[in-house]
Amino acid sequence: MADNALGALNSEQTEKVLQFQDLTGIEDLSICRDVLQRHNWNLEVAVQEQLNLYEGRPSMYAQDSRARPPAVVDDTNSRIYFSPAGSSASGGGFSSFVFSMCYNLVTSILHILFAIFRTNVRPVSSDPVEDVVRFIGSFEERYGTNHPVFYQGSYSQALSDAKQELRFLLVYLHEDDVQSVDQWCRIALTDTELIRFINTYTLLWACNIKSGEGYKVAEALKAGTYPFLALIVLKDNRMTIVGRLEGTPSVSELILRLKTIIDNNEMNLIQARHERAERSANQSLRLQQDQAYEESLRADQEKDRKREEEKRAKEEQEARKREEINALEIEIQRIQREKELTIQKIPVEPEVGHPNSCHLQIKLGGRTIIRRFLMSDTVEDVYHWIFSQPDSPVNFEITTSYPKRILYPTMEMISLFKAGLTHREVLHVNDLDD
User: Fold this and answer.
1) Is the CB of residue 345 less than 8 Å from the CB of residue 384?
2) If you placed Cys at 169, which of 75, 162, 277, 410 could pair as Cys (CB 3.0 to 4.6 Å)?
3) Which helix (H) or strand (E) holds 370?
4) Distance between CA atoms of residues 385 and 383, nearest Å
5) What domains, with CATH codes, occur in the chain?
6) Model pLDDT for residues 326-368, shown as the tens digit of each residue
7) Neighbouring C-alpha atoms within 13 Å toward the C-beta of 81
């Protein structure tokens, strides 16, 4: 499958596909190839787009190119117009003010007329990001690589990042056909001091108004004269235009104007940072409280579980004790019934002096019991009489005194005579359960 994905590519494209795979972690090489193809093999833009998707930010490539840019609040009451150096409009303060007012009025009217009568001249782009990348490439080809850092993404993404990072967004709209724009770019946007200022205090997004993306942004920001600059910042939780600068200012004028606007609106970012920090602290506190509650809840649940286990174990133990007691009572009752039945098996005791009688003294526990049996009675008859006694063991053996012989239990039930007993004998009862 990898061979199919890379088969039709040259070595440079194959290398970019493999680099894109390493940077994004996408395993499918065909997906890597398709993403790079959509971005005209611009590895940096493709990777940035993918990282935006991973971070949950909207995909700029997937956006409808016909959709209008995100709306921003216009907080500027007028435009700042810079006339070319040496023109009459730069003579005095009052004349410059009058010129600026007249210019604002004329450009507004022209903008409205242009909006009414333009038909089928609107540029259309399938990829806003590519419009921006194409402008950056064209700018570097014409003016060199010594310029402020251009944001490589769509206008919508630049707004989103500026809002997220709480930075000023400086929008620059470029017009190729104006000679003053070409001279201004060659002089101002390559100036080291201006580059340092823009890179330090702003996020710079730029595009050509002849592209679909640049055209849409020019319409949204109501650009009239080029070069056009707009400074946008988060204010009252909305991205707001706080300054417009049109024309060709000198480097010192531009830095002064930008610094003034930034200083006047820096408090908005400070307040936003404070509110964000406060929200973050509150969220962290709530998270800690939730964690503490969860831990307390788990501890209580663990206590309840142990208490329930102890209760269940105690109930089971009590149930076993009751079962043992019941079983013991049943066993006692069974033995009692068996003793009662055994009484019926005991032969009648012979009279005193009977010539065939055997006088037995039987040691049972701590007492001695005495009874006469006939010599013809069996050892089992003696066992039955002993077992019928209330204090007799359940399992026991019967032995003689000396020499000791086991009379019961035996394999064969024999008579006392055959067991070798005389007319007087002492027998012992041994509890087999001890």
Assistant:
1) yes
2) 162
3) strand 367-374
4) 5
5) 11-57 (1.10.8.10), 73-84+123-283 (3.40.30.10), 357-431 (3.10.20.90)
6) 999 998 899 999 988 999 999 999 998 899 999 999 999 889 9
7) 23
